[in-house]
Amino acid sequence: MLTQLLKPSNDHNEERTEQTLSGSTSRRALLAGGLTAAFTAVAGVASAKQTRLSKQQGTVLAKSGGSSRVVYEPGTNTTTSHSSGTFATTGASQTRSWNSTNKRLLRRISYGPLPSEVEEIDDIGYNAYLEKQLDYLSIDDSACEARVLAAVPNINMSLQDINHLSLANSYLGTEAAVAAMIIRSAKSKRQLHQRMNEFMQDHFHVMADTHLGVWLHYQRTVIWANSMGTFKDILTASANHGLMMLYLDNRLSTANNVNVNYAREILELHTVGVNGGYTEEDIYQLADIFTGWAAEQDNSSFNFGSFRYNIAQHAQATRTVMGQSFPQQGKAQGDAVLAWLANHPATIKNMSDKLCMWFLGRPASTSMLQNITAAWGTNGDIKAVLRVILDSGNMTQIQPIFKRPFHLIVGAIRQAESDITSAYWVRRYLDESGHSIGSWVQPDGFPNGFNYWCGGMVKRFKLMTHFAAGRLQNVPAINMTVMNSMTEGERMSYINNSFFLGELPVSDQIWIRRYMKGNAKHKQAVAIALCSPAYQWF
């Protein structure tokens, strides 16, 4: 039997989910077709070595390392107990069926590898393929960008135009940014860049719900433009965007009324990390440095959300942060501390661990950290760091990572090579699965790993069933007609190669072939495959 999983509170609002993802064939047809039997054969893959932990929405209870903290919630004077640390992402020995180093790389740097990409990496070689993805601007992605522009015509609007249109539709910026992110993740040839966009979006997380129109501008100019540049540049860009000042209340921080929210998160989340060696006094010293860093707050202004610096509100004095003194130089004092923090050894350690967890499923080893430190350079060369982490030798030691809902659905769309023309229904699914992009309340971004996301399995099954059946509007499912003239073995190979790079465990293939024997239920067979434990991990 399948291991019963505890259900965290992100799996809420069942009634709304049933209304959106309901359908006459979904669970009845799928279960009648043998989904339970298929899962029985491979249940251990999803459940072995897993610690079953619950998590209350908005408050992390499970952690590996780190310490508890108290955070002032943005926009309030209330505090929330919050545990810091990274969710464990390791699972069972899923990788035992992944025999190709090339395919392992494809799994980690894309949302859903395609057979054509397997052919390309086999043809040009591991290192050449990785270098091509690192040099993402050299990849012609005009077809994807044309698709984005057709679906999201306001994607490149100026901040002023965004604010103007937001008067009539306050959700404009969020809708545009999320739609572009979904379409690019599903259709872009620059897959590593999209994976880094998602990573940096969480690392420099800003909640969209209170500043919806400006959120698009933040994503475009801070995250998408800098996710594969230097760490100093993206740290500085986030600090110099008005939305960050609004979200973390630095707009309220003046020489006579210092607010420490932003200073605390710079240290705890953006740079050195919770174990970086700073003290409470360091937070207050840093907060003094950033007094005067603010944003245009007039909702009637088309410049709302733009960065503003007011030297009259700056606390004039030399400040000391973690033993380093920063003389009074107005705004330059803040710029100097950002540059210093960007190259701090604790920042390198923090970012190394997070990036290794993101791509390898494990923190950086001592030797890995040494190599990353050597590659970091003066400003934190992100491409050089990725080159170290994604070295072929490391692909032999990767740990399986549980797909977040975003990864699951855009990966299925990508591998089905669906001609997606609208992201509306994908966004609806993400909202209901608890992965509503931009809606996470705390500034630490969405969690990673099995321990948090395992509670949404029923929603995953329903979504994959609806996708396979072609019930997601504007998102055509895999072309089932090509399987009509195939034998059961050929159909199984088609599903295996399309979604699993030919590496679906044999036990899964046996059960799916048994289900297809003597019938033409191709959609249900694809649904079973996409709901299998093997497809939940990458």
Describe it.
The protein is mainly alpha-helical. Among the domains are: 14-92 and 402-424 and 439-536, no CATH class; 230-342, no CATH class. It has helices spanning 14-21, 26-32, 35-47, 101-109, 115-124, 126-134, 142-151, 159-166, 172-187, 191-203, 212-226, 231-239, 242-247, 261-270, 280-289, 331-342, 345-360, 366-376, 382-389, 392-395, 405-415, 424-432, 450-453, 457-468, 488-500, 506-516, 522-531, 533-536, and strands spanning 68-72, 79-83, 293-295, 307-309, 319-321, 324-326. The strands form 3 sheets. The chain has a two-stranded antiparallel ribbon. The protein has a two-stranded antiparallel ribbon with strand order 3-4. It has a two-stranded antiparallel sheet with strand order 5-6. A hairpin with a 2-residue loop joins strand 5 (319-321) and strand 6.
Low confidence ranges: 1-93
Class derived from helix and strand content = mainly alpha
Q: State the major sheet.
A: 2 strands, antiparallel
Mean pLDDT: 83
Termini distance?
A: 23 Å
Evaluate the radius of gyration: 24 Å
Strands in their spatial order, largest beta sheet: 1-2
Helix segment tally: 28
* E-strand count: 6
Give the strand content.
Answer: under 5%
Fraction of helical residues: 40-55%
Q: How would the global form be characterised? A: globular
